[in-house]
Amino acid sequence: MPPKYTTPTDSSNGHIARKRFGQNFLNDNNIIAKIIHAINPVKEDSILEIGPGQAALTAPLLEALQNIHVIEIDRDLIRDLHLTDAYAEHRLIIHEGDALKLNIRQIANEMNPKQPIRIVGNLPYNISTPLLFKFVDCLDRIKDAHFMLQREVVERMAASHNSKSYGRLSVMIQTHFQVEALFTVPPTAFNPPPKVQSQIVRLIPHPASPWPKQPSAHYTELVSKAFSARRKTLRKGLKDLVNEDGFAACGIDSGLRPENIDVASYIALSHHTLK
Ligand code: SAM
Question: Is the whole-model pTM more than 0.90?
């Protein structure tokens, strides 16, 4: 049975949730305990939380940790975080600004230059996809990540080929991470309640990149091109990048559509066509 936590969201401190910052604050202690249980923080962990808000996750995480680093954009919430004991005790380290713009690699190195860090966030849904791609750029600095996202986004991240939800996001995320869709969270667990269902997802970087030496810009282009023409065959959609011999060499039927081939096939096509 996960422990119960008291969080600052229990007593409203008058903050009005800002839509532009995707603010839906968790206010269900059972769900919060379930999330903390899934993350399973231990004292030695270096955890970076994106968007601590009113500390619904931050406070119980800190019960297990020596300290926690957070990135928050909202100045009013930052002001409140400055008033906490954890901040006074230097256990809460606040990076003020936009998580999309801050240098995550630099923060990770500052947190723990020797070990990869753990990332946690009930992410603002309006920026979740670009944030995920930002994490792909510093994979070597990440041990794992636990995010709350729109359920539909988690379905797309975890989808297998030949399914309706399989697309660019599935291929790009699964190329770099093992994706584990955990439990769903209903709108009633938040204040204000979002219009959609949410889900917790666990991401663990694969031990080795398919491109240990080069950046994978070519791969990104290939996958994006394939799915920008979802209804076209691979032969037509990728005609500028892969010729018939290329498909044949990878053992891929060029008459298939982009959702019909698996992640390994995209990686094979990319390796074959990389100049
Ligand atoms: N973690 C809190 C919780 O679970 O109740 C708050 C989650 S709320 C969905 C998202 C949080 O991310 C808010 O605190 C919001 O101000 C913050 N946020 C929104 N956009 C951000 C950005 N670009 N960079 C950093 N934080 C951001």
Answer: yes
In a domain, residue 7? The reply is no
Indicate if 89 and 144 belong to the same structural domain.
yes
Pocket of ligand 1 (CB under 6 A): 21-26, 50-54, 56-57, 71-74, 77, 98-100, 122, 124, 127
Instruction: State how beta strands 25-26 and 190-191 pair.
Output: antiparallel
Instruction: Identify residue 174 by its one-letter amino acid code.
Output: Q
**Judgement on whether residues 50 and 150 belong to the same structural domain of the protein:** yes
Buried b (16+ CB within 10 A) or exposed e, 253-273: ebebbbbebbbebbbbbbeeb
Q: Which range marks the domain in which residue 256 is found?
A: 217-273
> For residue 56, how far is its CA from the centre of ligand 1 (angstroms)?
11
Whether residues 60 and 93 share a domain: the answer is: yes
Number of domains comprising the chain: 2
Residues 222 and 200 in one domain: no
In tens digits, what is the pLDDT along the chain, a chain of 275 residues? 444 444 444 345 688 999 999 999 999 999 999 999 999 999 999 999 999 999 999 999 999 999 999 999 999 999 999 999 999 999 999 999 999 999 999 999 999 999 999 999 999 988 999 999 999 889 999 999 999 999 999 999 999 999 999 999 999 999 999 999 999 999 999 999 999 999 999 999 999 877 766 657 889 999 999 999 889 999 999 999 999 999 999 999 999 999 999 999 999 999 888 75
Longest dimension (CA), the chain: 65
